[in-house]
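lol forgot to send this yesterday, sorry. struct tokens for the thing we talked abt
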């Protein structure tokens, strides 16, 4: 007797779980595709038909309104389906790609910062367009690096052996020799209107 009771309990429990899953799937489909709109509409119309408030066998104003309402609910369902099937996935892909780009930018910035701190020569070669002079203050262990802003480093377009270090208020000009040595050959003050002229005409090295 106990065995039969246990079997019946197991069967009832299994049926309950199956019904629960089916109802959950049905509710998910109704919500995902927006079918809950026409479903509610049809439920209301069904109640009206049972109570005699609506008779689809007779063509009158009520039946015309019924079909118009049905079309409107189906359009609403279609809009929700398009949003869930197309718009949302595309938006998620765009947001995912944006997040990946931002993460990569942060990684690159962190990589540049670490290279700047640990291997300044390699940093300037890769990111500043030219290797700074060996006497660059960044390489001096006796000089505090806190707050130090390195210069912009670039080569002259007319003479690639000339390397220019552009600071906030002056330029340092170095000559590079074939044996790899550098020598400071000139120091020039930056004109006050240099930035404005640079924006209007473009920088000329």
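and heres what i got for the seq, position by position
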């Amino acid at each position: 007797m106990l065995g039969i009771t246990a079997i019946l309990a197991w069967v009832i429990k299994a049926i309950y779980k199956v019904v629960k899953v089916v109802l959950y799937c049905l509710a998910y489909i109704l919500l995902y595709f927006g079918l809950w709109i026409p479903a509610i509409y049809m439920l209301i119309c069904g109640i009206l038909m049972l109570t005699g408030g609506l008779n689809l066998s007779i063509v009158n104003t009520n039946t015309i309104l019924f079909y118009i309402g049905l079309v409107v609910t189906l359009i609403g369902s279609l809009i929700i389906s398009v949003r869930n099937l197309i718009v949302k996935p595309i938006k998620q892909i765009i947001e995912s790609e944006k997040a990946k780009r931002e993460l990569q930018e942060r990684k690159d910035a962190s990589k540049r910062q670490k290279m700047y701190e640990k291997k300044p020569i390699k940093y300037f070669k890769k990111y500043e367009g030219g290797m700074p002079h060996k006497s660059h203050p960044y390489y001096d262990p006796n000089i505090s690096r806190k707050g130090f802003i390195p210069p912009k480093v670039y080569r002259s377009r007319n003479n690639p052996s000339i390397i220019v270090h552009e600071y906030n208020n002056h330029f340092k000009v170095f000559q590079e020799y074939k044996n790899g040595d550098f020598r400071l050959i000139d120091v020039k003050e930056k004109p006050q209107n240099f930035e404005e002229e640079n924006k209007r005409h473009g920088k000329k090295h």
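Residues 15 and 51 are 34 Å apart (CA to CA). anyway ping me if u want another try
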